[in-house]
Amino acid sequence: MKRASARGSQLLAWVLWLQAWRVAAPCPGACVCYSEPKVTTSCPQQGLQAVPADIPAASQRVFLHGNRIAYVPAAGFRACRNLTILWLHSNALAHIDAAAFSGLALLEQLDLSDNAQLRAVDPATFRGLGRLHTLHLDRCGLRELGPGLFRGLAALQYLYLQDNGLQALPDDAFSDLGNLTHLFLHGNRIPSVPERAFRGLHSLDRLLLHQNRVARVHPHAFRDLGRLMTLYLFANNLSALPAEALAPLRSLQYLRLNDNPWVCDCRARPLWAWLQQFRGSSSELPCSLPARLAGRDLKRLAAPDLEGCAVASRPAPPIWTGGPADEEPLGLPKCCQPDAMDKASVLEAGRPASAGNALKGRVPPGDIAPGNRSGPRHINDSPFGTLPGSAEPPLTAVQPESSQPPGSPTTGPRRRPGCSRKNRTRSQCRLGQAGSGGGGSGGVEGSGAPPGLACGLVPLALTLVLWTVLGRC
Ligand SMILES: *[C@@H]1O[C@H](CO)[C@@H](O)[C@H](O)[C@H]1NC(C)=O
Ligand SMILES: *[C@@H]1O[C@H](CO)[C@@H](O)[C@H](O)[C@H]1NC(C)=O
Ligand SMILES: *[C@@H]1O[C@H](CO)[C@@H](O)[C@H](O)[C@H]1NC(C)=O
Ligand SMILES: *[C@@H]1O[C@H](CO)[C@@H](O)[C@H](O)[C@H]1NC(C)=O
Ligand SMILES: *[C@@H]1O[C@H](CO)[C@@H](O)[C@H](O)[C@H]1NC(C)=O
C-alpha cells in the first residue's frame, strides 16, 4: 500500500510539474509573461545582451527596454505576427538589421529611443509597417534620415526625432505621412528648412523645431501645414523669417520664435505685419540688430522703427551670408526703401554710437541689454512664451530719434546716409549694396566691389561732391 501511495504522489508531482512547464516554458528566462489585458512578454532591465530567441509567438506586446541589447537581427520577431507594441528603448543598439521588423504588419508602436550608439538606420527598416502609429527615434545619435526611411507609413501619427544629430531635412522625407499629427525635431543641428521638407504633412498639428541651427526657412516650406496649431522655432539662428512662409498656417495658435538673432530693419516688415494680424499666441521676438533696438520685441515695435538696413550696425557677426553659393537666399526681402517723407531717422548717420546709448536707459529692467542676447530666455520659457514684458514702455513713447546707426543706408537714391559726408569710409558706402543685395553681407570689408559700383545709386551730384571730398566714394 505504502508503495502504491508513494507511486501516486510521484505521479501527481510529475503531472503538476508537467502542467507548470506547459505554462512557464514559453516565457524566456528573464521575462514575465501574461495574457491579460494583452498577451505580453515583459523583460525590462534584465541585463539582456540579445533579443531572447524564444519570445512566445502569441505576444502582442514585447517590452525589452533598459537592457544592453546591441543588435536586432533580421526577423528577430518574425514569429510574433500579432505584435502591436515593441519597446526597445534605452538599450545599446548599434545596429538594426534592415529586416528586423519585417512581417510585423500589425505593429502600432515601436520605441527605439535612447540608443545613442545607433547613429544610422537602414532606409528599409520600417517597410511594411502600415499600421504603425508611433515611432520613437529620439536620442539615437542619428545624423541623417536616409532616403525613403518613412516611406509607406501612412498610419503614422507620432514621430519623435528630437535630440539627435540631424544635419539636414531631406526633401519629401515625410511626404507619405498624411496622418502624422506630431513631428518632433528639436535638439538637432538642422541649419535650414528647405522648400520640400514638410511636403504632404496635411494632418500635422505640432511641429517642434526649436534648439536647432535654423537660419533660413523657405517661403514655401510650410505650404501643406494648414492644420498646424503649434510651431516652435525658438533658440535657432533666424535673423529673418519670410512672412510668406507663415501665411499658409491657417490653424496656427501657438508660435514661439524667441531666442533668435532677429534683425529688426526694413526686411522684417512683412513678418512684423503678419504678427500684427496673428490672432494666436506668440512669444516675444527680441531684436538683435540694430543696436538701438536690441532687446526690444519686434512685435511691439512701430512701423517707423523698421527702416533701413541694420547689416553693419554691429561689426560682427554677419546676419546673412546667404549660405553656400548654390543655395538661394530663402525669402529675405531686399532692403527696402523707407516710407516717403520719413523723419530724419534714416538719414542722420552722424551719431550712431550715441544712438544705442541714448536708448539704453529705455530697455526695461530684466530685459537684455543691447548687444547681449543670451539674456532673458527665462522670460519666454512658459509653455508658449507669451508673457508680455509688462515693464516695457509703450512703443509710442520711444521716439525713433535721429539715430540710425552707421551703415543703415537704403534711403533710396536721394538720401543715402551710408554715403553721406559724415560717414565716408569705403565700407560704409558698400553697406547699402550688401544689404540691398539680400545676401553676402558678411564680407563688408572684404567685398571686392569697386567703390563706384557700390555707390551706383547715389545721385550723380552727391557722388561728385563725395568724390571731390574723398577722392573715392
Ligand atoms: C493572432 O491573433 C489571432 C486572433 O486573436 C489568433 O487567432 C492567432 O492565433 C494569433 N496568432 C498567433 C501567432 O498567436
Ligand atoms: C488616417 O486617418 C484617417 C482619419 O483618422 C483614417 O480614416 C485612415 O484610416 C488613416 N490612414 C491610415 C493609413 O491609417
Ligand atoms: C548662424 O547663421 C549665420 C549665417 O546666417 C552663420 O554664419 C552662423 O555660423 C550660424 N551659426 C550657427 C551656430 O549655426
Ligand atoms: C549677458 O546676459 C547674461 C545673462 O543676463 C549675463 O550673465 C552676461 O554676463 C551678459 N553678458 C554681457 C556681455 O553683458
Ligand atoms: C561715422 O561718423 C561718425 C561721426 O562722423 C563717427 O563717429 C563714426 O565712427 C563713423 N562711422 C564709421 C564706421 O566710420
Summarize the structure.
Residues 399-412 have a biased composition (Low complexity). With 473 residues, this protein is of the alpha/beta class.
Structure description:
By secondary structure, the protein is of the alpha/beta class. Helix content is 15%, strand content 10%. The chain contains seven helices and 18 strands. The chain has helices at 2-24, 243-246, 269-277, 352-360, 426-436, 451-454, 460-470; strands at 32-34, 40-42, 61-63, 71-72, 85-87, 95-96, 109-111, 134-136, 158-160, 182-184, 192-193, 206-208, 216-217, 230-232, 254-256, 262-263, 281-282, 287-289. The strands form four sheets. Strands 1-2-3-5-7-8-9-10-12-14-15-17 form a twelve-stranded mixed β-sheet, with no helix packed on it. Strands 4-6 form a two-stranded parallel sheet. The termini are far apart. Residues 20-25, 312-334 and 337-458 have low confidence and may be disordered. Bound molecules: 2-acetamido-2-deoxy-beta-D-glucopyranose (5 copies). One 2-acetamido-2-deoxy-beta-D-glucopyranose (NAG) binds next to loops.
Which strand order spans the largest sheet, edge to edge or round the barrel? 1-2-3-5-7-8-9-10-12-14-15-17
Mean pLDDT: 71
The outline comes out as: elongated
Task: Compute the number of strand runs.
Answer: 18
Strand content: 5-15%
Count the helices. How many? 7
Main beta sheet, described?
12 strands, mixed
Radius of gyration: 31 Å
Classification by helices and strands: alpha/beta
Oligomer: single chain
Question: Helicity level, as a percent range?
Answer: 10-25%
Q: N-to-C SSE series?
A: HEEEEEEEEEEEEEEHEEHEEHHHH
| Distance separating the two termini | 124 Å
Domain LRRCT: 260-310
Membrane topology: Lipid-anchor; GPI-anchor
Region (Disordered): 313-333, 353-446
Pfam families: LRR_8
